[in-house]
Structure formats: structure tokens, C-alpha cells
Design brief:
about 0% strand, about 725 residues, two-stranded antiparallel ribbon, mainly alpha, 38 helices, Leucine-rich Repeat Variant, single chain
Length: about 725
């Protein structure tokens, strides 16, 4: 068979077998096309390559372009099978006078035909050709060669068909297709636009696996796209806005890409645009905000103006969408705007190295306040049937971010919305799996209809905790929260989250948000202990909470790196113990004794005596574990000392237990070993409070203190109350 005959046989893919032509068409029934039946029979009975080539040529002539249907394609496959195309793809010897790629082109054309059948596209004999097909994308050759171009088109059709099968993306990634597609796109040869389209599909289907297998190549594509975006002066820059979010890596974005992306966005958003031009730019900016915070925005005047512009545009868009009645909200755009508003909130509350100047902060807070008002207005309209929609979750998230920093403005509107927020948080808490799914849908919503974005917190309650912490200090909001059952919900939530940190769970893999959420819950409970003590005494959920605190603290104080959480638990437990002192659980039970022993450990290990060069006397200094976090710890420590002092007269067994722990003796020893001038007055007051109550409560404590030079130490530190107590019999 001549080379021309081979080329003609190769046209099988162009006259009905190429995947682009494999649409369901007018079916030529078997009885109406006896010629085709005869040629298919010849194809099945072919004994060698020449006969198969000839039969393929005859089939090509018998089937007009576009007339082939799925049933006929399948019968051609049954006649040809995979053996023949396999040999065509791997042979290295072409007939005399033929280019070496002609046989491969015919083999790919056959595969393209077969792959139009989803079942065949997932066949192992197709999947094991992925590495070979991927090499065709980057093979060198004459760019004007029609046969080579046809082979490249067929190759893309094969790979695209495989990508459309359930497990296809995984096989393509494992077969090196992602790197090949990146190189094909960067080479800008024939079909490079198809390479980009297939890359987009693979990233949408399996982003993490793509980056794991081909990070250097994908970063090269990102650099190219970013540079094109920065230079683009035509409508292509808006198309790139839609593509670029897909190519941002899960790790660090190269700095040169960030510069190009920011410069391109600054030019777009600084121009007068229609919504279809502006919205993709806002989505890209939101994706960058998720990935990099504000690190992609340059410092200085240009950066601050750009950030202010971003937040301003986002707020305007939110108001336009949420304040309009009777129109459908562009949820994906508004969710992206929420992300930009959250970036604005972070920068406005940042004290050091903020991109914004103070006048800009004041202006943006005012603008964001109006946008948050629109969010509240929207949430007030949400009925029960919409509570599980991802956009509602996104709206609650931005409101939670605002309330975490600002509760004085919009107070009336916030109070009116609190009942809804409590019901909403309770609904999602009770359906935790749906809440987690909602968080993923919100992430998707913020970027594009097909692409997953950064992870959002998986429950609504965690989003609201910081704001509720502020609101429980105020009488009006606190009464609403109590009336709506928020304390009971918070107790259940705390106990559930605490289970994640209990023995048997790997706390090293827990996100920081779990521990932060527990700490914030403690702060809310502390507010309630101080402002609503009657609630603590009468609500049974706080008895359960107290039991959990007592059983958990002993192990918690021993855990490295969890001192701040231990401080919260210890202080909250001590304050609650003062209110629940008549509870049977606090009458010297093993759990209560273990809790107070652990609390004493936390309180007693905060300070040590430290030698100073050139001085004979040591000074009182923070322990190494406490020193780095004392700014966050000291208020809890002082409150804990005060609460322990209040527990001593209420729990008769506590003073003897403290004496057995040797805390009063070691405390006096510590004070006697350091210079009184190194002990701040508030520390003296805290120590004296504990020592006085212990001395008053128990004669043996008084005797032990006297043996430890307690009267002399009290005199040195001008602890008049302690000195008087120890002087009494």
C-alpha cells in the first residue's frame, strides 16, 4: 500500500471517526448500507496490516462525513480492536516515502474515534496510552504539516475524552499529561489553546494532585499568564481574569507573579468598567486575598490607594446587590466582595505595618459599615427554607468578621438580628456535616462555579464567637442571647469541640481554629460568670461544663504549647467553682482535687527567681514558658489568683490540699529569695490575697507559713493583712 493510501486511510478520523465529528447523526441502518457491512466484514477478516489498511480505506469511502453514529463506531472498534492501533502508535518503521508520523497519526485517529465512546475512553488499553499520547503534544516537527496537525487535534480529543471519565483526571495526572500540557502551552505551537483548556479542566477536577505532580511546570504557566495579564491592553485581560484563579498554587505564589497580577488589576479596576468586566477582576482579587492576605499589595501610597479602591468597590457592589429588591443576587460576585471586605477589616484593625493610613481607615470603616448594614438587611429576609444555602453562610461569615472587631455601630440592627443568628448557628451545629459542606460550597462560590477555593471555617458558630464575646459584656445583647438559648448552645459546642482535643485524638493535625474557638468560648463564659452569675447557678449545662473542666485541666497543664488554653480553663473553672461551691462534685471529690491541684500548678509556676549580674539578690521574673505569652496570659493569671482566693473559704478541704502541695511555703520562699523592689505592687497584692485566705482558713497553714519566715517576709513586702493574720494564734 502506498503512502498516499496510508494518508487516505488516515482520513477515517476526518470523515466520521475523528472525535470532533462523532456526534449522533442520521443512522444508516445495516439493511440500508450493505456496502458498509461488506467492508466491515473485510476489516474483521483482514489477516495482515496491508489488508487492514485496505479495509479501513474502503470503510472510509463507504461512510460519508458526519454519517457515522455510536453504534457504527462501536462496530468499527469490534472489527479493529486495540492491537492494530497499538502497533501503529509504537512502530518506528514507516513505508518508503512516508513521514515517520503517518502511522502514528492513523493510530491516534483510531483512538480518537474509539474515545468518543465513554466506555472505551475509560478502557485500560486507552489509559495505558496516556504517556505516549502526552509525548505527541510536545514532539517537534513541521508546524505546517497537515497530518501532524491532525494528529495533535486527535491527541487532544483522546485526552479530553479520558478527562471526562470518572477516574480519567487521576490517570492523566499520573501519566504526565499535566507537564506535557504546560510545555505545549508555553511552546505556543499548534493546539496550545487546547492545552490550556484541558489544563483548566484538570485543575478544576483535581487541583491538589495537579500541583503535586507538576508544580514547576504549572508555576511556569502562571508566570506566563501573569505576564500576559500585566501587558494585555485588549479584551483578553478580562478572559485572563477568569483563568488566573485556577492557576494560583496552594502554596506560595511567586513574587513576580504577584507584582504582575496586582499591576494588571490596578489598571482594570482603576478604569470605568461595565459589571461583566469588573466582576472577574474582583473575583481574582478575592482569590489573591485568600491565598496571600495583603502580601500581594505593595507598600506605600500606591498600595494603600489600591487596597482602598478594592474595598470601596467591594462595598459598593455588596450594597447594589443586597439593597435592590426583586432582583437576583449575583452570589458568586458578592461572596468575592465579602472576601475583599474581610481583608479591609483586617487592615483597618492592624496596628503595625498596616497598608492603610489613619484617614483611609476611618473612611473605609464608614463605607464598610454601610455594606454590613446591607448584609444585615439581607439576613433579616432569610427564611427557614434558605438557611442551608451557601450564600447565607457567606453572609453570616462577613458579619461575624465585622462583629469580631466592631459592635458599637449598628447596635440596634445587630440586636434585632441576634435571634436569627442563634437559630442559624444552632441549625448548622445540629447538622454539622452539612455545615462543613456549606463551607466548601462558599469557597467555591467565591471563586467560580467550578473551582474549589481556600477552606473556610466549617461551622457558623465559630464565625460568631468573637462577636458574641463582645456582645455578652453589654446588657441588652446579653439578655437577648440568654433568652434565645445561646449559653446552652455554647456549652454543647464547647464540649463537642473539647472532644477533639481529648486523649485518643491527634491534636497535632487539628487546625488552630479549634483551640482558638475553645479559648473564645471560655471568654464568653467568663463574661457570663461575672455579669450573669445566677445563670451559671441555675442552668444545668454549666454543671456539665464544670465537670468537663475539672476532669480535663490536670492533663492539659502538662501538655507542651497549650498553656494559654490551660489558663483559660483554669481561670474559668476557678470562677465557676466559686459560684457552684455547694455542688456535690466540688466537695473534695477526686475530680475536684485533681482540678485544684492543676490550677495551683498553673498559678504557682508563672514566676521564678532569676539571678542578675552584679547583684547578690535575685529578681522576680517570668518563667520561660510564660514569658512569651504573658501579654495574653496575665489578665487570666490575676483573675485566676483572685478566684482561687475566693474559693478557699467556700471549700474547707482546699486549704489543707494547698498546704500539701507546698504552694504557700514555696511562695514565701520565692518572695524571700528575691529583691522586694523587683515585685510589682499588683503581684504583691495577688500573693497576699491567696496567703491571707489560706492562713485564715487553716491553723496548719498559719504554722507552716510562720516556719517559712512568713511574718518577716510580710513585713518586707508591707503585707499588713498577712502580717496581722500570722501574728494571731
Amino acid at each position: 500500500m502506498s503512502c498516499c493510501d496510508l494518508a487516505a486511510a488516515g482520513q477515517l478520523g476526518k470523515t466520521g471517526i475523528m472525535a470532533s465529528d462523532c456526534e449522533p447523526a442520521l443512522n444508516q441502518a445495516e439493511s440500508r448500507n450493505p456496502t458498509l457491512e461488506r467492508y466491515l466484514g473485510a476489516l474483521r477478516e483482514a489477516k495482515n496490516d496491508s489488508e487492514q489498511f485496505a479495509a479501513l480505506l474502503l470503510v472510509t469511502k463507504a461512510v460519508k462525513a458526519g454519517d457515522i453514529d455510536a453504534k457504527t463506531r462501536r462496530r468499527i472498534f469490534d472489527a479493529v480492536g486495540f492491537t492494530f492501533p497499538n502497533r501503529l502508535l509504537t512502530t518506528k518503521e514507516a513505508p518508503d516515502g512516508c513521514p515517520d508520523h503517518v502511522l502514528r497519526a492513523l493510530g491516534v485517529a483510531l483512538l480518537a474515534c474509539f474515545c468518543s465512546d465513554p466506555e472505551l475512553a475509560a478502557h485500560p488499553q486507552v489509559l495505558n496510552k496516556i504517556p505516549i499520547l502526552s509525548t505527541f503534544l510536545t514532539a517537534r516537527g513541521d508546524p505546517d504539516d497537515a497530518a501532524r496537525r491532525s494528529m495533535i487535534d486527535d491527541t487532544y480529543q483522546c485526552l479530553t475524552a479520558v478527562a471526562g471519565t470518572p477516574r480519567g483526571p487521576r490517570h492523566l495526572i499520573a501519566g504526565g499529561t499535566v507537564s506535557a500540557l504546560c510545555q505545549a502551552y508555553l511552546g505556543h505551537g499548534y493546539g496550545f489553546d487546547q492545552a490550556l483548556a484541558l489544563l483548566v479542566g484538570l485543575l478544576a477536577a483535581a487541583e491538589a494532585q495537579c500541583w503535586k505532580e507538576a508544580e514547576p511546570d504549572l508555576l511556569a504557566v502562571l508566570r506566563g499568564l501573569s505576564e500576559d495579564f500585566q501587558k494585555a491592553e485588549d479584551a483578553s485581560k478580562f478572559e485572563l481574569c477568569q483563568l488566573l484563579p485556577l492557576f494560583l498554587p496552594p502554596t506560595t505564589v511567586p513574587s513576580e507573579c504577584l507584582r504582575d497580577l496586582q499591576a494588571g488589576l490596578a489598571r482594570i479596576l482603576g478604569s470605568k468598567l461595565s459589571s461583566w468586566q469588573r466582576n472577574p477582576a474582583l473575583k481574582l482579587a478575592a482569590r489573591l486575598a485568600h491565598a496571600c492576605g495583603s502580601n500581594w499589595i505593595p507598600a506605600g501610597s500606591s498600595g494603600s490607594k489600591f487596597l482602598a479602591l478594592l474595598v470601596n468597590l467591594a462595598c459598593v457592589e455588596v450594597r447594589l446587590e443586597l439593597e435592590e429588591t426583586g432582583t437576583e443576587v449575583k452570589e458568586d460576585v458578592v461572596t468575592a466582595c465579602y472576601a475583599l471586605m474581610e481583608l479591609g477589616i483586617q487592615e483597618c484593625t492592624r496596628c503595625e505595618q498596616s497598608l492603610l493610613k489613619e484617614p483611609q481607615k476611618v473612611q473605609l470603616v464608614s463605607i464598610m459599615k454601610e455594606a454590613i448594614g446591607a448584609v444585615i438587611h439581607y439576613l433579616q429576609q432569610v427564611g427557614p427554607e434558605k438557611q442551608k444555602e451557601p450564600f447565607v453562610f457567606a453572609s453570616v461569615r462577613i458579619l461575624g468578621a465585622w462583629l469580631a472587631e466592631e459592635t458599637s455601630s449598628l447596635r440596634k440592627e445587630v440586636c434585632q438580628l441576634l435571634p436569627f443568628l442563634v437559630r442559624y448557628a444552632k441549625t448548622l451545629y445540629e447538622e454539622a456535616e452539612e455545615a462543613n459542606d456549606l463551607s466548601q460550597q462558599v469557597a467555591t462560590l467565591a471563586i467560580s462555579p467550578t473551582t474549589p477555593g481556600p477552606t473556610w471555617p466549617g461551622d457558623a458558630l465559630r464565625l460568631l464567637l468573637p462577636g458574641w464575646c463582645h456582645l455578652t459584656v453589654e446588657d441588652g445583647p446579653r439578655e437577648i442571647l440568654i433568652k434565645e438559648g445561646a449559653p446552652s448552645l455554647l456549652c454543647k459546642y464547647f464540649l463537642q469541640q473539647w472532644e477533639l482535643t481529648s486523649p485518643g485524638h491527634d491534636t497535632s493535625v487539628l487546625p488552630d481554629s479549634v483551640e482558638i474557638g475553645l479559648q473564645t468560648c471560655c471568654h464568653i463564659f467568663l463574661n457570663l460568670v461575672v455579669t450573669a452569675p445566677g445563670l451559671i447557678k441555675r442552668d444545668a449545662c454549666f454543671t456539665s461544663l464544670m465537670n468537663t473542666l475539672m476532669t480535663s485541666l490536670p492533663s492539659l497543664v502538662q501538655q507542651q504549647g497549650r498553656l494559654l488554653l490551660a489558663a483559660n480553663v483554669a481561670t474559668l473553672g476557678l470562677l465557676m467553682a466559686r459560684l457552684l461551691s455547694t455542688s456535690p462534685a466540688l466537695q473534695g471529690t477526686p475530680a475536684s482535687r485533681g482540678f485544684f491541684a492543676a490550677a495551683i500548678l498553673f498559678l504557682s509556676q508563672s514566676h521564678v527567681a532569676r539571678a542578675t549580674p552584679g547583684s547578690d539578690q535575685a529578681v522576680l521574673a517570668l518563667s520561660p514558658d510564660y514569658e512569651g505569652i504573658w501579654a495574653d496570659l496575665q489578665e487570666l493569671w490575676f483573675l485566676g489568683m483572685q478566684a482561687f482566693t475566693g474559693c478557699v473559704p467556700l471549700l474547707p478541704w482546699l486549704a489543707p490540699a494547698a498546704l500539701r502541695s507546698r504552694w504557700p511555703q514555696e511562695l514565701l520562699q520565692l518572695l524571700g529569695s528575691v529583691s522586694p523592689n523587683s515585685v510589682k505592687p499588683e503581684m504583691v497584692a495577688a500573693y497576699q490575697g491567696v496567703l491571707v485566705e489560706l492562713a485564715r482558713a487553716n491553723r496548719l497553714c498559719r504554722e507552716a507559713m510562720r516556719l517559712q519566715a512568713g511574718e518577716e517576709t510580710a513585713s518586707h513586702y508591707r503585707m499588713a493583712a498577712l502580717e496581722q493574720c500570722l501574728s494571731e494564734p
